[in-house]
Design a protein that fits this description.
The complex is a heterodimer of chains A (about 325) and B (about 280).
Chain A: H1 2-27, H2 31-67, H3 85-92, H4 94-125, H5 132-144, H6 147-157, H7 164-172, H8 185-213, H9 217-225, H10 230-241, H11 243-258, H12 262-267, H13 279-289, H14 293-326
Chain B: H1 2-10, H2 14-37, H3 42-47, H4 59-65, H5 68-101, H6 107-117, H7 122-136, H8 143-167, H9 171-179, H10 184-195, H11 197-213, H12 216-221, H13 229-239, H14 244-264, H15 266-278
The chains are: A mainly alpha (about 325), B mainly alpha (about 280).
Chain lengths: ~325, ~280
């Protein structure tokens, strides 16, 4: 019975496919020539992009993987094969495991802090207040600035003793940390996170705002007629409808946090005492400063695998729900 | 009637304005502080960290504008960003076109190649990229050496944003052009490109701003004369870290081009980002 059940729907499908193929062949003016012409055109259009990506994306990634199996100082032939020893060294290196921890702290903190903050500001800006357009522009300004340039300004603001933040804190009557916010190991990573939040909150606000504006006005009105308060409408109607936008933002934020480099390099260089190293600063330090190209290769493979697994898991567990509900 | 019903509901009270002001102050504070700091002397900044310029001094900004290094960095940044944008947009729209308008066997798998490309951060490939550009291609310390890899890494997002735009072009237009004797390449050039101009501007601006703000790749590939503005700013601030006012003036002027570009094309950038997130 189950055999029959399985076979039955399959047969018409096959039939349909064969007729479809038949019609295409009949319609096409010259079956062979037309198809070849189209193939040539596709190749013509796609090959510049594919060539560029092959040379500058795929090949370097493959080289990084290859490099990770050799002990190599960056010159001479790459022939000292060491198997998985580079991976062993990277994964047992306290500095690297700390770097991974820092990346994950930033990933989690971004979602826990920036998501509610971004939602709150977006909900606020979605109300009809004067100067809303200007506000929206202003909130997005830090996002447009180069991370390095923003980093340099913050570096100056956070200088110990003569920096402005210290000045303001002393003026209020508190004592700023002696080594400065970026010079005290316990404070460096939280400070970094504050600066990153300042820099990237604008993107969250902007995306959430766009999502909120996609919520039909009628829904608000209907909820309002049912006697819901403004806050209830936001919580029960608007924010749930933002689901797909929120999930996509979380994905982007996660990928960005794992790749964090520029801001760290400018603010602390990974210090003090490796309190702010990330996977990216670790591999740049190993590669360009230490000349340990094999170690850098292994670190970049680990970085890629972590990012890829997280992206895949996120796609399967969370984003899939969106595409499923779309259908 | 309708507006009366919704206004008290959707509009903000005084508290909303207070929160909005706090958000604006925190967002713009550091930027404005830097800009104002450029008008002060180091003595003024040390005396009163939170004060206004008194008197207003122009010499820090004059120092930046008359500094030939600043203009050299700005010129390098501009050229690299222009090359990156041109390469990414041209290759991107060419690739997106058949992916949007042709029917062929491996279309979706080919598109997946670009989607997967989004997952490759430049940091992963950065050291082999450095070796490839400087040794194999002999393009170290050149505009093209930075621009080509940047364009390659900008391609996935370019294709992902452009494809739905090209798909939305009505089929009837294409058929009409075919009847008039246009070839597929003619249709691409005379129909698809003009009709997708808004999307092309979006991806162009994204590529430009991405290149303008880039740090890691230029840091490894460019030295001395060839450095870009972000490198110049970072180096200036470590070299003259005691000259706070000078650093503020330098950073403030360096921010201006990206800000102007953003303000001028705000709607398009925002639209493009939102489209990419929804898609």
């Amino acid at each position: 019975m189950s055999h029959q059940g399985a076979a039955l729907p399959a047969a018409p499908a096959r039939e349909k496919e064969s007729t479809r193929r038949g019609t295409t062949r009949r319609v096409a003016p010259s079956p062979g020539g037309g198809r070849w012409r189209q193939r040539l055109e596709v190749v013509f259009f796609v090959s510049p992009a594919l060539a560029l990506m092959a040379v500058f994306v795929v090949w370097p990634v493959i080289s990084a993987v290859r490099m990770s199996f050799y002990r190599w100082k960056g010159f001479g032939p790459m022939d000292d094969f060491v198997g998985l020893r580079n991976y062993e060294r990277v994964l047992t290196d306290d500095v690297f495991t700390q770097a991974v921890t820092h990346n994950f702290i930033i990933v989690v903190a971004s979602i826990v802090v920036q998501l509610p903050l971004g939602l709150a500001i977006a909900v606020l800006l979605n109300r009809r207040i004067r100067g809303r357009g200007l506000l929206r522009t202003i909130v997005f300004v830090p996002y447009v600035l180069a991370e390095v340039i923003a980093g340099v300004v913050w570096f100056q603001l956070l200088q110990p003793n003569y920096g402005t933040v210290d000045g303001i804190i002393s003026a209020v009557g508190l004592t700023p940390p002696e080594q400065g916010f970026l010079g005290t190991p316990e404070l460096a990573l939280p400070t970094m996170f504050v600066v990153l939040t300042w820099k990237y909150l604008g993107l969250a606000v902007l995306l959430f705002l766009a999502g909120l504006q996609g919520v039909p006005e009628e829904l608000y009105e209907a909820a309002q007629l049912d006697g819901a308060s403004w806050w209830q409408v936001q919580r029960r109607v608007a924010i749930p409808l933002l689901g797909p936008t929120i999930r996509t933002w979380c994905f982007l934020s996660m990928i960005g946090s794992l790749q964090l480099f520029d801001m760290v390099w400018v603010l602390t260089g990974g210090g003090p005492a490796n309190a702010t190293t990330t996977m990216a600063t670790y591999l740049i330090n190993q590669g360009t400063q230490g000349g340990n190209y094999g170690i850098a290769g292994a670190a970049s493979v680990v970085l890629f695998v972590i990012g890829f697994v997280m992206a895949l898991a996120y796609q399967l567990l969370i984003l899939r729900r969106d595409s499923a509900s779309d259908r | 009637m309708r507006s009366r019903a919704t206004r008290p509901f959707g509009s903000g009270g005084p508290l909303t304005y207070v929160i909005a002001l706090v958000v604006v102050a925190l967002t713009l504070g550091p930027v404005l502080y830097g800009a104002l700091g450029g008008f002060r002397s180091n003595g003024q900044i040390a005396d009163k960290p939170a004060g206004l310029p008194d008197p207003w001094l122009l010499r820090n900004y004059e120092g930046v504008v008359t500094n030939p290094d600043f203009w050299r960095y700005a010129f390098n940044s501009t050229m690299i960003a222009l090359i990156t944008t041109a390469v990414a947009v041209i290759c991107g729209v060419m690739a997106a076109y058949p992916l949007a308008r042709y029917q062929f066997k491996f279309r979706e798998s080919l598109f997946m190649v670009f989607v997967l490309g989004l997952l490759f951060p430049a940091a992963v490939a950065i050291i082999p990229l450095f070796i490839l550009v400087t040794r194999d291609l002999q393009l170290g310390n050149t505009w093209w050496g930075v621009a080509l890899p940047q364009a390659a890494f900008a391609l996935p997002i370019t294709v992902v944003i452009l494809r739905p735009f090209l798909m939305a072009i009505p089929k009837e237009l294409e058929e009409a052009a075919t009847i008039d004797g246009a070839s597929r390449i003619g249709i691409f050039w005379w129909l698809a490109i003009p009709l997708s101009k808004p999307a092309l501007i979006t991806v162009g601006v994204l590529a430009f701003v991405g290149s303008w703000n880039a740090y890691l790749l230029p840091l490894l590939l460019l030295q001395s004369e060839m450095r870009t503005l972000p490198l110049g700013v970072a180096d200036y601030s470590t070299q003259y870290s005691a000259d706070t006012a000078g650093v503020f003036a330098f950073t403030t002027i360096s921010m201006i081009p990206a800000l102007i570009l953003f303000l001028a094309l705000q709607r398009r950038i925002v639209g493009g980002l939102q489209g990419a997130v929804k898609g």
